Amino acid sequence: MWNVDNPETELHSEAIRVVTPEEFDYSTAQTPGSKRLAAIARGSISNSQMWGGLFFVEPKSQTAIHHHGLQETIVYVLEGQASIRWGTRGEFESIAKPGDFIRVPPFLPHRETNPSDSVTFSWVVVRSTPEPIIVNLPADYWGVPND
């Protein structure tokens, strides 16, 4: 809340904070087949009402089927390509490449696959709540084992 009586104090209490890679939290919630690093999360360096970090999937790897609960997720692809499957049966698929933005609605089951032989794909991820919500689903959630 903006302090009209003392805007100078208010500006400093909610100051801009630069988070360096050395400060990223490697112990944030994970999905098998990927790695997440939290840069902005509750209890880390700020009182942010959102979560922000990086997401990586190695070449020829895929994540488990998962969703992010009530969080809406926005992603910006930095490097590599990903095949993204989603839906109640994994019936939809799209390819994301560098420069693309992706929106993942709350509770939507999805999985990312990296088809490359040599390039790790990496994304900047921002979520609508400060806690990382990761709900990993059974391998046969879509009615067939992970392929």
Would you tell me the overall average pLDDT?
Answer: 87
Order of helices and strands: HEEEEEEEEEE
Structural class, from secondary structure content?
Answer: mainly beta
Q: Can you count the beta strands?
A: 10
Low-confidence stretches: none
User: What general form does the structure show?
Assistant: globular
The biggest sheet, with number of strands, parallel, antiparallel or mixed sense and barrel status, is: 5 strands, antiparallel
Radius of gyration using CA atoms only: 17 Å
The oligomeric state of the chains shown is single chain
What fraction of residues sit in β-strands? 25-35%
Q: Termini distance? A: 49 Å
Strand order of the largest sheet: 1-2-9-4-7
Helix content: under 10%
Describe what you observe in this structure.
This protein is mainly beta. It has one helix and ten strands; from the N terminus they run H-E-E-E-E-E-E-E-E-E-E. Strands 1-2-9-4-7 form a five-stranded antiparallel sheet, with no helix packed on it. A three-stranded antiparallel sheet has the order 6-5-8, with no helix packed on it.
Précis, in short:
With 147 residues, the protein is mainly beta. It has one helix spanning 7-13, and strands at residues 35-40, 51-57, 66-67, 73-79, 82-86, 92-96, 101-104, 110-113, 121-127, 135-136. The mean pLDDT is 87.
